[in-house]
Design goal:
- It contains nine helices and 20 strands.
- It is an alpha+beta fold.
- Strands 7, 8, 9, 10, 11, 12, 13, 14, 15 and 16 form a ten-stranded mixed β-sheet that branches. Strands 2-1-6-5-3-4 form a six-stranded antiparallel β-sheet.
- The chain is globular, with a radius of gyration of 23 Å.
- Bound molecules: pyridoxal-5'-phosphate.
- Pyridoxal-5'-phosphate (PLP) binds next to helix 5 and strand 14.
């Protein structure tokens, strides 16, 4: 076992020295929640969204949040290594009670455990995976990221036993999600995913994909998907933080999208990869900012490295900001060399002007991302 440093109740210590009592309510009852937060080159991906879900899960089991968001960031950051793509596993249980009793104990500190692991790229990403459908036998609060995952693991193991990578769970004739993933399907040209609710875990990857799809003019819907419709889908994907967007090329032994990843997946995966790179390259912090105009504004766009993207981006920006100088343009390749980021500093005069620039940039097929 790799003896990495982990965090347990205020201490950083080697994994093999991290111990919890057998009276911990996580051990006795599965009374706790968890989060999985990816980190790319040391930048936590959608950290605030993960913390929001953590807060919702804690509220869902009536457990007080032991830390503020700033404290969580301080706790988790030392576990990261910027040399790798990693994920943080964070677990909070209702602590160690003096005796085994179903009722909540009083005045007991929560147990907080966090560790970091490297993300191993999922083998099925590029060629797709097989999936099987089965009746969803889990509990009624699937929106809570509870550590009680027995239902999920039994579903996943059943899928693995049948040579599949994921189980697609069906309830009352509608497909819900995977055993450890959300589901997307391309049906009649529309990218469909079930709506949020207590049936599904509100995946952060799911939200990012929907947001990117809308920004890139891919038609999408958040409606219930009848299982019969799923069987006619031209593409099916399952999504999660550690595996990203996995195409399903076989469902219940029937071929999906010609047994290879489909064109919408190709487009979305490229957009998603470019988006990840763009977050890393913009130091991982993209927040709503309010500007007073006029002001200097960095317009950023990303695309594939084999395009003359700098000329294209400057041409688009000049449509709305004609006096852009050559020295206001910088280009930066991504770490893997597949993408290029262009930054053009402009003298922005209004939000309307910026909106027009971003509209033209996102409308252009060679621009995968504009920030
Ligand atoms: N649904 C379930 C049941 C999951 O366990 C997971 C992740 O593990 C997801 C969906 C995907 O969530 P996320 O994209 O936040 O990883």
């Amino acid at each position: 076992m790799e003896n990495k440093t982990v965090y347990l109740n205020g201490e950083y210590l080697p994994l093999n020295e991290a111990k919890v009592s057998v009276l911990d309510r996580g051990f006795l009852f599965g009374d706790g929640i968890y989060e999985v937060i990816p980190s790319y080159s040391g930048h936590l991906f959608h950290f605030q969204d993960h913390l929001q879900r953590l807060e919702n899960s804690l509220a869902g089991i009536r457990l007080a949040n032991p830390h503020t968001r700033e404290q969580w960031l301080d706790i988790l950051t030392p576990l990261l290594d910027a040399k790798f793509d990693q994920y943080i596993y964070l677990q909070i249980t209702r602590g160690v009670a003096p005796k085994r009793d179903h009722a909540f104990p009083e005045n007991i500190p929560a147990t907080v455990f966090a560790m970091c692991s490297n993300i191993v790229p999922f083998a099925g990403l590029n060629q797709g995976v097989k999936a099987i459908s089965m009746d969803d036998t889990r509990w009624k609060f699937c929106n809570v990221k509870a550590i009680t995952l027995l239902g999920n693991i039994l579903h996943r193991q059943e899928a693995i036993d049948q040579g599949c990578a994921e189980a697609l769970l069906v309830k009352d004739g509608y497909v819900i999600e995977g055993a450890a993933s959300n589901i997307f399907a391309v049906i009649d040209g529309v990218l469909c995913t079930p709506p949020k609710g207590s049936d599904i875990l509100p995946g952060i990857t799911r939200d990012v994909i929907l947001d990117l799809a809308r920004k890139n003019n891919i038609a999408c819907s958040e409606d219930k998907i009848p299982f019969a419709k799923l069987q006619t889908a031209s593409e099916i994907w399952v999504t999660s933080s550690t595996r990203e967007i996995i195409p399903v090329v076989e469902l219940d032994s029937r071929m999906v999208s010609g047994e290879k990843p489909g064109p919408v997946w190709q487009a979305m995966n490229q957009i998603f990869q470019a988006y990840k790179q763009s977050l890393i390259m913009s130091e991982g912090v993209i927040e709503e900012t309010f500007f007073e105009f006029p002001c200097q504004f960095p317009v950023k766009a990303m695309g594939k490295a084999d395009m003359e993207l700098d000329l294209l981006v400057v041409e688009i920006v000049r449509r709305h900001a004609p006096d852009v100088k050559e020295d206001a343009v910088t280009t930066r390749p991504s770490k893997d060399g597949n993408f290029i980021a262009i930054t053009v500093i402009i003298e922005a005069s209004s939000k309307k002007q910026l909106d027009a620039i971003y509209q033209d940039l996102t409308d252009h097929p060679h621009v995968l991302m504009a920030l």
